[in-house]
Design brief:
The complex is a heterodimer of chains A (204) and B (674). Chain A is mainly alpha-helical and 204 residues long. Chain A has seven helices and one strand; from the N terminus they run ααααααβα. Chain A folds into three domains: 30 residues; 103 residues, no CATH class; 60 residues, no CATH class. The chains are: A mainly alpha (204), B alpha+beta (674).
Chain lengths: 204, 674
């Protein structure tokens, strides 16, 4: 093995080990969910995660939305027990969770207090942080999250189209056989191309 | 037997190391004796891993609770079938299971090419032995299923109740079979890069194993969706959880590869791209496992977390680094031997299809990792859940569906305008008719409307291809319809098997679009009470509670509600939904209560009843109407059948891929006349 190659390989191995150490350190420092003795079969459930999200009812307030809209709103808010589900699904699936019913009660209270969907979402974000939402708000840095896949695909499409155009503009060389002479760009007539393609197909 | 198994695992570790060293040394030095020794070392490693696996199965089935793994994942009163499947039900067992599949796959792959690919085989064998060494070492040092407890408990803890389900018994093995199969193409790609033998010869092996991987991933993912739907009670089958995403990523890049490999076979193009896709698919499988096991990303599957994540990260970065090095130093050898003749060609369409598939893979990976990125950049935690993934991936999925229909309509090399008109007119008309009819019927969900229009278009493409093929056979050979269909598929398995896969995709997308019309109802009901609900199709459903009952069976207490169900006043029968509390042999409760969903399936929609719990004689239920769900399973099955047809060996003509490519002049022999 050449010396340069040896060092290159050693560097690659080293990078892996450093990463592993960093991850080890992260793993050690990772806070564990409190042991409540009342957990889920699939994940570490934090039964103490519910916080109060109440605001005084507006004067003369009526319910700000119907049941269907309220349920849609409940689906935008994430249960904080650790399940990764929205409050609606968690509450109606698993009775052992005490967090989603509490969050659901807060939502109902805010709806009855006359608060709009956006105001309710903002209240939950104020109390729990942005992770109270099932998807990040479409603003600031989060826009990178929403737009990046399309940007990458767009750049990929432009690059691919450019490459394909360039390739297709070159004259197709007659590549069957041993040594082949590629003709200058674009000097084959349609008739020549048709005969060439027919010959290739025949060979296939 | 248990002790033999335990010892075999350590012998396997040494043998894998031996196989790796001798294979690489033999290949580099051209020494046949070392190559043979390396190959035999791999076979012995396989034998040892099989013995270790038999040892673990023996321990499980004989309830040897002195083993931490057996005590932690089984109990004496568990059904025998789940005691057997506990082998892969926990971390340590699943690592050994992975090694078992990999060793068997590796031996079969190396044995099958020992004469055909003499130059590649030693390096492929060495690479596979290295991967195997990693898995066996991880099993021995970080997740050993033969670790013993300081004392022997009277009974084990039992298996997580959510894993005691037929879907979970067969879904993980299928996923593992799919994940692990990606190692074989990876090993041959690395071997081809090392030896610089990058002609079409390695493609044959790679394609076969890529198809095997794709098939098992398809089956595994479909079964995983089914398990989540019937077992977890979330009323859905896909939640964009990191673990689900991890299985989807290699499927996407594997699918892209199975398309682009056709271009290399037929035209000698895309050699760099294909190598990149093959290695990326394997690396994504490893990365997915790292995500699943490390816990760096919040997942509902956190029960699978363990210290092996660090080992996987190290392996992932080492493999990625080595791959980048080999690809970067062999770029000249990967030059295409042909050029694209026209932008309007099947090659170009396949490339755009590849772009979208890889774009979706990127978007899934991006969404999965974005919470970490956001925390780094902004310091605040966010949730990237289904609304995010749906926003980003629905447009990309629809684009992919469109390309599924467009690709097969365009001729290879260059399509003429008249050819395009002829090919597109019927499929386009089919799509437009479907769209107009659904709009006229009142469908106003535009994502669903576009999805069904495109589904009509792609169905038109598939139908047209079959119609033409069958028509040609009937006129040329005078065959009856049935015979013509069978022979058309049998004689052109790759092409028509592929169309069957596309048909499965169309069905899947149609079923996914059905979820736009899903309805959930939060219901409280007492014994004898009646509730009336209306489904998305306008049918009226009446539910009469038969009350809540409790019972005890093999290893669980069951609380169940029975509902007498009427649709438009026609009795449909009794539907039950349960909460189960599992216990061990001493009747001590184990785990939290789990849900058994009541499901009534029909072609148009599923009635889905979840008993959330019982409070003061009132049962709290979620009743959901989930349209077209059964078509997800049917679509998945059709895709798997199509995959099987494509995979099935052509008995009558086994030859190198497309003779045209084999006779191409190497790129460096091409000279340009200026």
């Amino acid at each position: 093995m050449h010396r340069r190659e040896f060092f290159r390989r050693a560097a690659l191995g080293g990078a892996g080990l450093v990463t592993a150490r960093v991850l080890d350190a992260q793993g050690t420092a990772k806070p564990q969910a409190p042991a409540t003795g009342n957990t889920s079969n699939l994940f570490d459930m934090n039964q103490d995660a519910a916080k109060t999200v109440r605001r005084p009812a507006r004067a003369g307030a009526a319910e700000s939305m119907d049941d269907e809209d309220r349920d849609a709103l409940v689906r935008e808010i994430r249960c904080q027990c650790g399940c990764t589900l929205d409050v609606y699904i968690c509450r109606t699936t698993d009775f052992s969770c005490q967090v989603s019913p509490a969050m659901h009660r807060d939502i109902i209270s805010l709806v009855e207090g006359g608060y709009s969907a956006q105001e309710i979402l903002d209240s939950f974000v104020t109390t729990y942080g942005e992770r109270a939402l099932m998807a990040p708000k479409r603003e600031g840095f989060n826009l990178t999250g929403y737009l990046m896949p399309f940007a990458v695909l767009g750049v990929g499409a432009v690059a691919l189209t450019t490459v394909l155009r360039r390739m297709s503009n070159r004259a197709a060389p007659a590549v069957i056989g041993a040594r082949v002479v590629r003709s200058a760009e674009g000097d084959a007539t349609d008739d020549e191309m048709a005969r060439l393609n027919a010959a290739i197909r025949k060979d296939e | 037997m248990i002790l033999i198994g335990e010892l075999s695992l350590w012998v396997a570790l040494l043998m894998a190391a031996w196989a790796a060293i001798t294979s690489f040394a033999g290949g580099s030095l051209g020494r046949e004796d070392l190559i043979t020794s390396g190959r035999r070392g791999l076979y012995v490693t396989t034998l040892m891993v099989i013995l270790a696996s038999v040892g673990l199965w023996t321990a499980l089935l004989s309830h040897d609770f002195s083993l931490s793994y057996v005590a932690g994942h089984t109990s004496a009163n568990m059904p025998r079938v789940y005691v057997f499947t506990a082998f892969w039900g926990g971390q340590a067992g699943s690592m050994l299971f992975w090694a078992l599949i990999l060793s068997c796959y590796s031996s079969i792959a190396i044995w099958s090419v020992r004469e055909k690919a003499r130059e590649l085989a030693p390096f492929a064998c060495g690479t596979l032995a290295l991967i195997l060494l990693f898995f066996i070492a991880t099993t021995c040092f970080k997740a050993n299923p033969f670790d013993r407890l300081a004392f022997v408990p009277a009974d084990g803890k039992g298996m997580n109740p959510q894993l005691q389900n037929p879907g979970m018994a067969i879904h993980p093995p299928n996923l593992y079979l799919g994940y692990v199969a990606t190692a074989i193409p990876f090993a041959f790609a690395i071997a081809a890069l090392i030896t610089r033998k990058l002609d079409a010869s390695w493609l044959l092996v790679v394609r076969r194993w890529s198809l095997i991987s794709w098939f098992f991933l398809t089956v595994g993912i479909t079964l995983g969706m089914w398990w989540a739907y019937v077992e977890l009670g979330w009323s859905g089958y896909w939640a964009w959880d990191p673990v689900e995403n991890a299985s989807f990523l290699p499927w996407l890049t594997g699918t892209a590869f199975l398309h682009s490999i056709m271009i290399q076979e037929k035209r000698g193009m895309l050699r760099k791209w294909n190598v990149v896709l093959v290695v990326t698919t394997f690396l994504l499988a490893i990365f997915g496992t790292f995500i699943t096991r490390s816990g760096i990303i919040e997942s509902v599957h956190s029960f699978a977390q363990s210290p092996v994540g660090t080992w996987f990260a190290t392996f992932f970065f080492a493999a990625t680094g080595a791959t980048i090095y080999f690809v970067a130093t062999r770029l000249k050898d990967l030059e295409a031997t042909a050029v694209l003749e026209s932008m309007v060609s099947r090659e170009a369409a396949f490339l755009y299809n590849n772009l979208v598939l890889v774009g979706i893979a990127f978007s899934v990976l991006w969404g999965t990792l974005f919470p970490i990125l956001s925390e780094w950049v902004r310091g605040s935690k966010i949730t990237v859940g289904p609304p995010f993934f749906n926003t980003v991936n629905i447009p990309l999925g629809l684009l992919l569906l469109a390309l599924t229909g467009i690709g097969p309509l365009i001729a290879w090399r260059k399509a003429s305008t008249s050819n395009l008109k002829r090919q597109f007119i019927f499929p386009t008309a089919s799509g437009v008719v479907v769209g107009v009819v659904l709009f006229a019927l009142g469908m106003r969900n535009y994502h669903a409307l576009i999805a069904y229009t495109l589904a009509g278009f792609v169905s038109g493409t598939i139908g047209q291809e079959f119609y033409k093929g069958i028509g040609a056979r009937r006129s040329i050979h005078g065959e009856g319809l049935f015979v013509a269909v069978v022979r058309l598929i049998a004689r052109n398995r790759r092409r028509y098997g592929g169309y069957i896969v596309h048909a499965g995709i169309v069905i899947l997308f149609s079923a996914f679009a059905g979820l736009a019309f899903k309805k959930d109802h939060d219901v409280q009901i007492k014994a004898g009470e009646t509730k009336v609900l209306v489904d998305p199709l306008g049918h009226t459903w009446r539910f009469v509670s038969q009350g809540v009952s409790t019972s005890e069976t093999l290893n669980r207490f069951v609380t169940a509600i029975g509902l007498e169900v009427f649709r438009d006043d026609v009795r449909q029968g009794i539907l039950t939904s349960e909460k189960r509390q599992y216990f061990d042999s001493n009747k001590q409760p184990q785990f939290e209560p789990s849900t058994e969903v009541g499901i009534r399936t029909s072609a148009m929609l599923d009635l889905y009843v979840v008993l959330a719990g019982v409070r003061d004689d009132t049962a709290e239920l979620r009743i959901s109407f989930n349209p077209l769900v059964v078509w997800v399973w049917i679509g998945g099955m059709i895709m798997a059948i199509g995959g099987l047809i494509v995979m099935w060996p052509q008995a009558e003509r086994r030859r190198a891929p497309s003779g045209y490519v084999a006779t191409l002049a190497p790129a460096h022999e091409l000279v340009t006349a200026e």
